[in-house]
What we know:
The structure is a homodimer.
Chain A: E1 21-22, H1 24-31, H2 35-43, E2 50-52, E3 55-59, H3 60-74, H4 79-90, H5 96-146
Antiparallel strand pairs in A: 1-3, 2-3
The structure holds a DNA duplex.
Amino acid sequence: MKDNHSDTSTFADSTLNSDVTYSIGELSKDLDVTPRSIRFYEEQGLLAPKRVGQSRVYSKKDRVRLKLVLRGKRLGFSLSETKTLFNLYDSHTNSKIQLQAMLEMTEQKRAILNQQLEDIRMLMTELDDVESRCRDELDQINKGKSE
Amino acid sequence: MKDNHSDTSTFADSTLNSDVTYSIGELSKDLDVTPRSIRFYEEQGLLAPKRVGQSRVYSKKDRVRLKLVLRGKRLGFSLSETKTLFNLYDSHTNSKIQLQAMLEMTEQKRAILNQQLEDIRMLMTELDDVESRCRDELDQINKGKSE
DNA sequence: TGCCAGGTTTACGTGAACGTAAAGGTAAAC
DNA sequence: GTTTACCTTTACGTTCACGTAAACCTGGCA
C-alpha cells in the first residue's frame, strides 16, 4: 500500500486536491500517535475511516477528527467524553433536549478550562521563580569556580 | 481522634496559630479527595505526614503539598512527575547537575503548558461558536412554537 | 460497659488507554 | 519467487490511580 498523494503523481493539480487520503501509517507519523491507538479510537467509535480492500483509508475530515481527539487528550478529556461531544456536534437532528445537553456540556467544560488556565498561570510564575533561583545559584557556582 | 484546631479550644490566639494540623478526614473534605488517594500519594512518596499514635497528622506544609499534587493532576502531570519536581525542589544539595536537570524540566513543562494554553484558546473559541449556534437554533425552535 | 466514629493495614479488584505478541493478507521491489 | 514493507485481526498483558472489602485499633461519651 503506497501513498496516493506522494507528490510524484503529476504536477497538474497542486491546489485543488480536495480528496486527499492517508494510510494509518501516515497519520501515525504525522500526528505522532501509534497505529494501535488510532485503531483503538475507531473501536471506541471516535473514527470511521473508509476501507479499500481491508486497509483503512483516512480522509481529511478523519484527520481533523483525530487531531481533535488528541487535543482533547492533552486537555484531560476522556475518549468517551470526546465521543459524546462528537455525537452532539454531529447530530443534525437538533432536538431541544440535545441542544441543551450541548450547552450544559460546553458550560461545564468551560469551567474546567478556566480552572486549568488559572492553574497554568500559577505554575508558570512558579516556574519563573524556580528558574531564576536556579540561574542565580549556577552563577554563584561558576563565579566561585573562576576565582 | 478529635481535631485540635476546632475553634473550640480557646479564643486566645486566633492570628498566630502557625502549627495548625489536619486529620486525613479533614484534608479529604477540604480538598475534595478521598483518604484512599491521600494515603496512596504518601505511599508513592509525595507526602510524609507526622504520626501521633498510628494516626496521620498533616501540617500546613503537607496541605500545600497535597494541593500541589492535585493541581499537577489537573494539568496532566503523573504522580511520579510531580514527585520528581518535588525532589528537585526539595534537595538543597544544589549540585550543578541537579540545577540543570531542574532547568530542563521546567523548560519542558513550560512548553507543554504553552501547548495547553493554545489548545484551550482554540477550544474556547470553538465552544463560543457551538454555543451561539445552539442558541440560534433554540431561538428558531421557540419562535416557531409561538406562531 | 459498650458502642460508634473515626483512624489503620493488607490485599485484591477495576477502568481507561493503550502495549505487545502472534499469525496472517497483499502489493511493490528485487 | 521471495523478501520487504505495510496493513489486518485477535487476544492477552500492562500501567496508572485509585476503589473496595475485611479486619483491626482507639478515644470519647451515653
